[in-house]
Amino acid sequence: MMRRWRRFALVALLAAATAAGLLRLRLDTDILSLLPADAPGVAGLRLWQRHFAGAQELLVTVRGADADASTRAAQAVATALRARPDLVRRALWQPPWQEDPGGAAKLLAWQWLQQPPETWAELRRRLAPETLPATLADARDALAVSLSPQELALGAYDPLGLTRLPGAEAADEWADAEALFSPGDGALRVVSVQPAAKLTHPRAQAAWLAEVGAVAGAAGAPAVVRFTGGPAIAAETASGMQRDMTGSALGSALLVAALFARAHRSWRPLAWILGILLLTLALVLALGGALFGALNVVSLGFAAILFGLAADYGLVLQEEFHRAPDRTATDIRREQAPAILWSAATTATAFVALTLGGLPGLTQLGVLVGFGVLAAAGLMLATLGPRVTGRRREAGPAPEAATDMPRPRQTLVLTLTLAAAAAALLAWRPPGFDASTEPLRPVPSESYAALDELQQAAGPASGRLWLVVSGPDESTVAARLDRAQPVLEAAQARGEVSRFILPTALWPRPARAAGNAPAAQALGARREEILAAARQTGFTDRALLLADRVLAAWAEAEARPAGDVAAWALAQAVAHDAAGWHALAAVTPARPAEALAVLTRLEAELGAGFAMGGWDTLGGAMQQHAARRVPPLVAGIGTLVVMALALVFRRGREVVLSMATLVLAGLLLLAVMAAAGWRWNLMNLLALPLLLGAGVDYNIHLQLALRRHGGRWPAVRRTTGRAVLLCGLTTMAGFGSLAWSGNGGLASMGRVCAAGTACVLFVSLVLLPAWWSAWEARTGKRSAPGTAGPGGVAGPSALYGPRSWRLATWLAGRLPRGVLLPAARLAARAYAAGAPARVRVVADNLRPVVGAAAAPAAACRCFDAFAAKLVDVCRHEAGRPMADRFHELTGWEHFTAAAARGRGVLLVTPHLGNWELGAPLLAARGVRLLVLTQAEPGAGFTAQRAAARGRGGVETVVVGGDAFGFVEVIRRLEAGAAVALLVDRPPPGTGVTTEFFGRPFLASAAPAELARATGCAVVPVVLPAVAGGYAAQVLPELAYDRRVLGSREARARFAGEILRAFEPAVREHPEQWFHFVPVWPAS
Amino acid sequence: MVPLRARLAGLLTALLALAARAPADALDDWLEKQAEMRTWAADFTQTRTLPALTTPLTTPGRAWFAAPAGFRWELGEPAQTIAVRQPERFLVLYPRLRRAEEYAVEAGDGRAPWQQTLALLEAGFPRDRVGLERRFTLTGPPERAGAGWVVTLAPRAPGARRFLTAVRIEFDPAQAGPAAMELRFADGARLRNDFTNAVVNAELPAGLLTPEIPADFLRTTPAAGR
Predict the structure, then answer these.
(1) Other CB atoms closer than 10 Å to residue A134's CB: what's the count?
(2) How high is the ipTM of this complex?
(3) Testing the interface with A: which of B45, B47, B49, B54 to mutate, by most A Cβ within 10 A?
(4) Strands of A188-195's sheet, edge to edge?
(5) Chain pair A-B, CB pairs under 8 angstroms
(6) Distance from CA of A186 to the nearest CA of B (A)
(7) If B116 and its partner were Cys, which of A244, A948, B157, B171 is the partner (CB 3.0–4.6 Å)?
(8) Tens digit of pLDDT per residue, chain B (226 long)?
């Protein structure tokens, strides 16, 4: 009861944490959130975007039939929007001072107050009663001879020169502002719109945009009205993200469901797996909310990827539950858990390693998918079971047609052909690299299209850079602005910078303003006098409007400029938030192509408090970033994957085959990209580590299955191959559904990953099995025809090889048994401790013999017993006498009787006790024995062992190594020789399914075949270890009717009888039944 | 029978029509003369009528032109403003202020409004009708103005139109070079040059169109980086 409550509390806690995480979740629509913070220019652009680019400013572009029509339409749009104060706080279609000269004058008056005292002294001197006439006359003369359009335009209305603020090219700035509203030739106009209220939620932005769009569209007609800027881009991006979440994730889930339904035609497990996937999705979203708060546009693609990957674990388990109806769910889970957890861990590692890429979008994606696959693997293992998936007894294994087997020669030709074709295609048209930020944008995007049109109208890229100067207070920023001036002037002198504008004249300096206020008030008090002097010089009231307003403002000594003009102008260059103050400057490089170098150098020279950025430099910065981060990232993930593979396989060649699979798949992917005309970009480049991690799963599953089934591909194909195919297809569905993502980069990544998965799948399922078989055949190392157990253990330990055997024999020849035995036991226990998977394999092998409860302990004893066996075998091969080790010989009369018939004696024995010592025992009794063995692993090992036997007068025939070996064996038996053969672990592909301890078991077919061929006596023998030595037990001869053995079924029955003759001995000495690879066939 | 008086009237009309030059012909004749012109030099009086000033500003000056697009303007005596059009730049010197402004000249008419406006200083020296109509729209046929003709042009470039609404060129079809030129600005300001003492195809002094900028001048490039 207590346990139930605890579980309930745990679930409730988890649900509450999930809900809290989900509530915290927001969408981050900013494209700059996707870029690495440490790339040159990104930090500056982010600051610029946050504080100055008008994240809340909607830009309405208006294009009419001609410039005049555009102007009229822009004015109409602004007027219509101003009539809706519920929607719009401000709508500007031209620089605000053109509509409100008074506001401009107030701003100018305030700007003057921020100037240094010496500037005021100069102004007071110019406007002093005695110099004023000359100042005005100079202004009048300048109008007569100036050819500068700006001077003519401004000077005529500024006889006092008030717009010529020191430290800023005021006229230039004002002309720039003009270009904001009418870029280029004026055919395109811009209306700047500020929302009535701050819009934070994307849905609110979308609704507001729709209303504004309706008003503007109607007012601007027939001109073409489009929308861009912060709210438009955010609303569009957010809707794209929501579409991605629902569309691609749903699409992925549907594809997974369709594939599952097609493969299994069963709805209950499908519903369960989908339920787990949805639960995982909720958990991951909650984690995203808790960890990141806001999920960006790229990371939302995780859902589709997660569905594709996580479904695999459910599918594999489902397959296993169906294939092994007799086994308990716990057994199957225990058997599958290592493969699934390894697979999940490898995949999670690859995805989490994306954090090293330095792209925030992919960092989120990597963490979310990494956590998601681990959570899904755990949930699938914990909750999927026969009650959910149902049981289905499969039909027996289909006969293995010759065409089902891998064909190494044809596969080699196919491999080389594909590699050559891919290489040729790549040499002809390699996929290029798109370094621009274009792939990060939403596609198709109306707001970005409008932005592009705006930028195109403004002219070719100038490489303009923004310089954001930040500080905790106004005076720090002011000091930094002053510090920037000489640095930028030096850059200009070096020819690196053609122009720069520092917002010195706009920057608030309260201390100066207070100090200048008396002088300003004094000038304001002389307003009428100054204006009268100007009129006397010939200036009209129209020309004096600005001077009049500025002098009036000074007279009133306004501390802060009010009105739209000031608000708009200050927003262009001055910002402050809780973190401090920020000033915006602009720097134009002399050569746009060198903008990135200029940015890097200036940032280094300016130091802390300065951040530069520019859209034109982003491409180059991203290329630098990719060149710096991606190769080590891929290499790092590759190393991790190789290490993981080494841990899983513990065999070098399978690691090599895995890597070969990935390399060829990578080559094919490049060829596909070349053929399709796809290019690499910042996003899809990171598909490489993803594919490396995800693709390696298939290799693990398939190669472990090949071991498990002794290299029999048809058996692997029907089980694991089918599951891997289904997994691959669901993964492709997950990635492929991103191809329709609203984000260009994500879509390209989805395409590349789907194509890459297809390539990995093709190589893994079509080529890898043949490679594996060819290599196994070449080295002569084939796994036993059993079932791979936990950890994919299927073959003998890597320690079992010629070198270690030579060393052991050498030691055995020199050290006393009393030393060797404890050392060997210690080594065996150490090995067992370091190879728990191997111990579990032994336990699994013994489970049908001793029962599930006793199996683990029996397995541990098995390692001890094997150590003792090895000591004696090595001592024997080292030439030490063994006769004294035998304390008991029973049933010798069965052998002598059988030998007396003269038709040969086939001594059969299982891997029980110390069967190797039977040969010297027989030799001591004058019997010359012929031993049939399988090839030993490693070059020369088989010959080494045969030579050792030969020294004791025992001949060896390697079964499978020589096609005529069996002919020789038959000949010898017919001549009356004694032949020894192990029967409980036949070579791959040669066993027959019989029953042993009431379960299906693969027995050697060789004794029955030899009996049929020769009519020899079949005599079972066991040599178990007993207290203080060994017992040799010759069991009664197994009778058979040679004529009946003509049928295959009869031979199989006889093979079963032979095997079952050993059941009592194995039951009596289970810890001496030495099988360290799985022996019970796959269900 | 047609009455004699009617026959005489018809003959008179035909003779008058032959005697009178068609307006379009007058412009084409002048453009032909312009095409033959290699150099041109004249004195001028510039009158700036600005809404900001109660009285017009009048300044004497001298102008030189060299085909196809080189010219030099000097405003004031002594010159207070010198504007020189060179193939790759437009140079404005202010000797009294010791200041030099350089504007890069792009191919074509450029995009910036200032550049389009500066290009209008060449408006008085079209070489052919195609070139003229590439930059301007004729607001109507040339009209008689005293002994000569006047044609009113509107800039085609919208950027230029924001500054300048019209250009009036007064010419004599029999003589190369403009007789007078008036620029009308958007704010109502007018800038008129009346040319006198014109000399056509005379050799121009060496270095006239490639002046050295004195070392003590402050050199600026006001529109760079736009």
Answers:
(1) 11
(2) 0.82
(3) B54
(4) A88-92, A188-195, A58-63, A224-229
(5) 101
(6) 6
(7) B157
(8) 445 555 555 555 544 444 455 566 788 889 888 888 899 999 999 999 999 999 999 999 999 999 887 889 999 888 989 989 887 788 889 898 888 988 776 654 444 555 655 666 677 778 888 888 888 888 888 888 888 899 999 888 766 777 788 999 999 988 888 999 998 988 889 999 999 999 999 988 888 998 988 999 988 876 654 4
